[in-house]
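Hello again, I could really use a second opinion on something today. For a while now I've been wondering how a particular protein folds. Please have a think about how the structure follows from the sequence. Here's the protein in full, and shout if anything looks odd to you:

***
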Amino acid sequence: MGHSHQVVKMELRRLAIGCLVVLIHVACAFGQAFEMKHWVLKLAATDADLSPDDRFLAITLESSASPRKFGEPVFESVEVWDYKNNNKISSIPLATYPNTWSTPNVVRFTADGTLLVASEPTRLHVLEARTLKPIRVIEPPFGPDFVIIHVETAPDGHIALVGANQDVRGALFAYDLDTGVLLFQTALPHVVSSIAWKQDGTQFAVATPFLCTNVRDTLQLFSTNRWSHLRTLQARNPTSVGFSQERLFVVESGFCKGSLFDRHLGLQSFDLSKWRRQKPILLKDRDIHDSVSFANGRLVADTGRLRTSHDWLDGTTTGSPVDAQFTVWTGEGQSIEFTPASRPVQRYREPRLRLSRTGKMVLADHKNPEVFQIP
């Protein structure tokens, strides 16, 4: 009887160990399936963009030796990195200009990855992406004190949209990068805060807010068919837009959270068939704010928590990020696909992120570039 009892105990132990091994394998398989790769380039960039095949990262940066005194020269350069191996592939000095105020020095690959577009405050440089060989310089015909703030290349072909701001005014230009020909230009009611192309390249949207005033905030919609203005939509503090085939997505400025301090900011959207506002997407205990991007059937937005503070002297309420986090939705925002663990913000962080063209990578915090591979 004792021997039989011992045999049963040993068999149970063997089964338990077997089950534990199976559970470990299942857990490992689960962990592998949902493992998120993450690369951090310890570079002080001014802007960044991923190549269409996700292999390379292009950045603009200002020399650390550049003076920060008003009017003294700034030295801007462009670099291309194999970010996965932390290896710089190529670099080139781009421009020298007087230091007036901070500009983003935008850099973008074209959709086929053959050209690179980089901006200085008043000019656009077109480079061969592989060698960084200069091809041409484009000077948009805007007035005094306008500076280039946004550049977005088309989802097909070699066309770039250029947004420039001056105080509270904005201007928009479209260029053929192969020839340098100006295709379109228009004045905008307020500054440009974001530009997004529709996935088929037939339309584009421009957010033109009068930030933190809650009045006259608009989204301007344009068509590339005869380069015409389609319509104007109203949206509160629109700081970023994303364009799918069926919807236009927009998020508010976290800084301008204002009178909404008692509830969370959500992801707004418009149905493109009838241009009707849809029910907003909301997250429990989190804000959806500042950055939204759509690519290849995926939607991503900043979803970290915002801390609100009230200035009793002027009666304003503002928001600042407490942690860094983003959320990825499938398709038109039907369901959440992935949310990484949140990370505390130790310093001021400008919430800026974008999906790569494949929809497989998230590029975050362009001034200190980080790349996340989405499972």
Summary: The chain has one helix and 32 strands. Confidence is low (pLDDT under 50) at residues 1-34.
